[in-house]
Amino acid sequence: MLTLVLTRHGLPTAATNLWLGGRIDVPLSPQGRAQAVVLARRLATARLDRIISSPMLRAVETATAIANVTGPRVEVDERLREEDCGLWEGLTFDEATARDPALRASWERDPAATHFPGGESGDDVAERALRFLVDLLATELLGGGQHRVLVVAHTAVNRILMCIALGIPVRDYRRRFVQGRTNLTVLRYENGDSPDEAQLLVANDVSHLPDSTEASWS
After folding, report:
1. What 3-state DSSP class applies to 116?
2. What pLDDT digit, counting tens, does each position of 178-203 carry?
3. Is 208 one of the annotated active-site residues of the chain?
4. Catalytic site residue from 75, 78, 82, 83
């Protein structure tokens, strides 16, 4: 059995929810580091066999804060990089709309099939996320037993990975799922080894964060 714990990195420097910066490699802000430490404390009593991180600095710093408390060393996997926004990197959504209104509308309708200009589509991300899941399942389910793996990645990558794991069309990843910073999302592979046979145990739990004065669904 594999329990796959997903989290998104903490708040990076110069971050805004309206800014497209998937491949801009920035560190955590002081608030982001504090978020990572709080998540690490919550996971302190959890047995984690592995911690696998995106190679991007904000994810590695988050993973390292957790590893300092829970023990496993941080492994890095290139397939967990955030989606490449191409020529829209560093733009706000409004700026992208003004520059490429037709493409922006197409991306809103179907972010799986639509490529960022000079960048990736959701389907491109899904291809590497699927390869990651297949390899992880083959490794962790070999020989039986119970295994817990923490993945530290990004909002688009995590939501697309969830689509694959739960058999949901990738085009719906933005509509169906939310990934708050340093949230806990938990998937379990108990009844099969196919990437799309996961059970969803927990989704976007941010109750451990000090600024979460309300439930994440309020």
Report:
1. coil
2. 999 999 999 999 987 899 999 999 99
3. no
4. 82
